[in-house]
């Protein structure tokens, strides 16, 4: 009884390490198949539309409300120190460095990781993946590689669009609600933004897209049998993608902007 909590902690640690190892091997296999033919262009284009184009509304709405709320919060905080003028620059930097990539990645994770996990999990339950094998089609090349590549390319574009919409949301609130001069707001936004501010957010977007699609494919491929197994795969994919996005965001921020 004394050692029972230690044994439970040990089992949990081993389970986490084993899962990390399996995901790392899955990612390595995906990257290996990515550079070897055949390439399924049609599947890639379909995934690009599903992940990129159809995610624009949710990313855009998230960004515009986030930019507006950020402007209100920064104005309220800056007014305590007579620093209301920093609103345009802080909104722009905050959106392109952090909020745009992270919130965009989380929205895509909620929409795309769940969709991919459900689709592939259902294919596994209905033995469609086994049918691919009998047709001499590698499941990872047909199902995983196109989705991972599409997400890696599409999410940075979504982040860029979300950044622009978020800054516009801050602009609308700043000009119409907080009384900023329109030309001065845009001038401050452009003056304080640097190339690497935008570039770092796009790099984060590519990493987040890779994570989202990889988690959806991994948990879909390893889902249990039946409806409950598919449901668990969807839940695990979204949770894992969200946690990894937040963790990788800190690591990338530390690499890009540490003093």
Summarize the structure.
The chain has 259 residues and is mostly helical. 85% of the residues lie in helices and 0% in strands. The chain has one domain.
Q: What would you say this structure looks like, in words?
A:
The protein is mainly alpha-helical and 259 residues long. 85% of the residues lie in helices and 0% in strands. The chain is built from 9 helices and no strands. Helix 3 packs antiparallel against helix 4 and helix 4 runs antiparallel to helix 9 (226-257). The longest helix has 39 residues, at 87-125. The radius of gyration is 21 Å and the shape is globular.
Please supply descriptive tags for the structure shown above.
single chain; 259 residues; mainly alpha; 9 helices; 0% strand; globular
Number of domain modules: 1
Could you tell me the number of beta strands?
0
Number of helices: 9
Order of SSEs, N→C? HHHHHHHHH
Residues in β-strands, percent: under 5%
Biggest beta sheet summary: none
Helical fraction equals over 70%
Structural class: mainly alpha
Shape: globular
N-C termini distance: 48 Å
Q: List segments where confidence is low: pLDDT < 50 over at least 5 consecutive residues.
A: none
């Amino acid at each position: 009884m004394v050692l029972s909590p230690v044994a439970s902690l040990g089992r949990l640690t081993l389970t986490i390490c084993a899962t990390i190892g399996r995901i790392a091997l899955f990612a390595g296999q995906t990257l290996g198949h990515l550079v070897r033919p055949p390439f399924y262009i049609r599947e890639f284009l379909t995934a690009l539309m599903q992940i990129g184009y159809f995610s624009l509304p949710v990313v855009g709405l998230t960004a515009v409300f986030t930019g507006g709320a950020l402007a209100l919060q920064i104005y309220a905080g800056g007014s305590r120190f007579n620093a209301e003028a920093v609103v345009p620059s802080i909104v722009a930097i905050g959106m392109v460095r952090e909020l745009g990539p992270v919130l965009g990645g989380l929205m895509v994770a909620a929409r795309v990781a769940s969709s991919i996990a459900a689709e592939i999990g259902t294919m596994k339950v209905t033995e469609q993946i086994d049918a691919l094998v009998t047709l001499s089609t590698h499941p990872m090349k047909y199902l995983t590689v196109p989705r991972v590549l599409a997400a890696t390319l599409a999410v940075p574009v979504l982040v860029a669009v979300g950044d622009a919409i978020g800054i516009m949301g801050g602009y609308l609130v700043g000009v119409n609600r907080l009384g900023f001069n329109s030309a001065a707001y845009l001038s401050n936004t452009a003056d304080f933004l640097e190339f690497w501010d935008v570039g770092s957010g796009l790099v984060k977007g590519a990493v987040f897209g890779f994570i989202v699609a990889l988690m959806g494919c991994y948990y879909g491929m390893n889902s249990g049998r039946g409806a409950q197994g598919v449901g668990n795969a969807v839940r695990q994919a979204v949770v894992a993608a969200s946690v990894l996005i937040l963790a990788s965001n800190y690591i990338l921020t530390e690499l890009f902007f540490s003093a």
